[in-house]
Specification:
The structure is a single chain. The protein is α/β, with parallel strands linked by helices. The protein has a single domain (9-314), classed as Rossmann fold, CATH 3.40.50. It is 40% helix and 17% strand. The chain has helices at 8-14, 81-84, 110-123, 136-147, 165-168, 172-179, 184-206, 215-224, 230-239, 241-246, 272-281, 297-300, 302-314, and strands spanning 34-36, 40-42, 44-48, 51-58, 63-67, 89-93, 129-134, 152-158, 259-264, 286-290. The strands form 2 sheets. An 8-stranded mixed β-sheet has the order 3-4-6-5-7-8-9-10, with helices on both faces. Strands 1-2 form a two-stranded antiparallel sheet. The longest helix is centred in the middle third of the chain and has 23 residues, at 184-206. The radius of gyration is 18 Å and the shape is globular. 48% of the residues are buried.
C-alpha cells in the first residue's frame, strides 16, 4: 500500500476545489486602493446592476477590455498594462463573483455575465471596445460579440472557449471539477482544510513553466479563495455551463468581427487543436501559437503575446 500523500478519498475531494484557486489580489474583503502587480495601479470601482465592480484603468486612446477566465482575476493581465497603455486605454475588470468585485447571489448565466459586461461599458461611457478574453473570459467576449455586435470592435480569444467544453477538456482534474455535484458547504470546508495544498497542483496544470510559480504567486491564489462569496459564485458559474453549450457556443460561426485566436502550445486544459477549431469556425480569424506556454500565455509569455496583440490591434 502506498502511504505517500493524503488518502485517495481526500485526493478526490481536493479535485473539486480547483476553480477558487486561480487568482488573487488581496485577502481582505475590502477593496485595497492599489493593485500591486508589476506597477502599482489604483483600483477603481463602479456599480453595475447593483454589484460593485473593481477594475484597473490605464493609458489613453481606443479602449481595450481585458477579461480574465474562470476563477481568475485582474492579476492574469499584470504584464499587459504597461505594454498596451502607450497606445490604448486598457481596462481590466474583476468580473462579478471574482477577485475584488462583489459576489452577488445570481446564477452567473452567460446572459447575466454579458449583461454585466455591457452595463460595465455603459457605466464607463464606452460605446465600443476591443475585447480580449482568456479561457471563459473568451467565452464572455464571444457572447458579447454575438449579443451586442455593435459594442465590439475586435476580438482576441486566448485559450478558449469552445463548443463542447467538457468533451474538449484535456485535463482530468478540470473535468472532475465541472462534473462535481458536491454542495457549496462541503467545498468551503475542504477549502478551509486543504486549500493551500492543492493550489500548487492547480497552478501547475495551467502554467507550463513551473519556475514562474513563486511563493508570492501561490500566496495570492491562496488568499483569493478566502474571499466571502467566492466559492458559491464559482460553483454557480460551473453549473451554468450547459447554457453556454445551448446558446452562444452554437453561434460562434456567426461572428464577423476581426478575430485573433491565441493559444499556448503546452495548454493542458484545451489542446491547441481546440484553438485551431475556433479559428476555422470564425470567418477570417487568424491563429497564433505561443511556445512554452500553458493556459494563460499572456501571463507566461507576455513579450510574445503583447507583440501579437499590438500588431493585430494596429492592423
Amino acid at each position: 500500500m502506498n502511504n505517500a500523500g493524503p488518502p485517495a478519498q481526500c485526493v478526490r475531494f481536493f479535485l473539486i476545489l480547483f476553480p477558487i484557486l486561480l487568482a488573487a489580489c488581496a485577502s481582505s474583503s475590502e477593496i485595497p486602493p492599489w493593485f500591486d502587480g508589476l506597477l502599482r495601479q489604483p483600483v477603481h470601482t463602479v456599480t453595475v446592476n447593483g454589484a460593485r465592480i473593481a477594475y484597473l484603468d490605464a493609458g489613453g486612446g481606443p479602449p481595450v477590455i481585458l477579461i480574465h477566465g474562470f476563477g481568475g482575476s485582474m492579476w492574469q493581465w499584470e504584464y499587459q498594462q504597461s505594454a498596451l497603455a502607450p497606445y490604448y486605454r486598457v481596462i481590466t475588470p474583476d468580473l462579478p463573483g471574482s477577485g475584488l468585485s462583489d459576489k452577488p447571489e445570481i446564477a452567473y448565466t452567460p446572459d447575466e455575465m454579458v449583461a454585466s459586461l455591457r452595463g460595465f461599458m455603459d457605466a464607463l461611457g464606452i460605446q465600443k471596445a476591443v475585447l480580449v478574453g482568456n479561457s471563459m473570459g473568451a467565452g464572455l467576449a464571444i457572447g458579447m460579440a454575438l449579443a451586442h455586435p455593435d459594442r465590439v470592435d475586435r476580438l482576441v480569444l486566448i485559450g478558449g472557449l469552445p463548443k463542447g467544453v467538457r468533451e474538449k477538456l484535456a485535463s482530468p482534474l478540470f473535468k472532475r471539477a465541472i462534473d462535481t455535484s458536491a454542495p457549496v458547504w462541503l467545498i468551503r470546508f475542504g477549502n478551509w482544510l486543504f486549500g493551500r495544498w492543492v493550489t500548487g497542483d492547480v497552478l501547475k496544470e495551467i502554467v507550463h513553466d513551473h519556475s514562474r510559480l513563486t511563493q508570492s504567486v501561490i500566496d495570492r491564489s491562496v488568499q483569493n479563495r478566502k474571499r466571502p462569496g467566492l466559492i458559491r459564485a464559482v460553483m454557480a458559474t460551473t453549473r451554468s455551463l450547459p447554457l453556454w453549450e445551448q446558446g452562444f457556443a452554437l453561434r460562434i460561426g456567426e461572428i464577423n468581427h476581426p478575430t485573433l485566436v491565441i493559444w499556448g502550445a503546452e495548454d493542458k486544459v484545451f489542446p491547441p487543436e481546440v484553438g485551431h477549431e475556433i479559428q476555422r469556425t470564425i470567418k477570417g480569424a487568424s491563429f497564433a501559437l505561443v511556445p512554452k506556454a500553458g493556459h494563460i500565455p499572456q501571463w507566461e509569455q507576455p513579450e510574445i503575446v503583447n507583440s501579437l496583440l499590438i500588431t493585430f490591434l494596429k492592423s
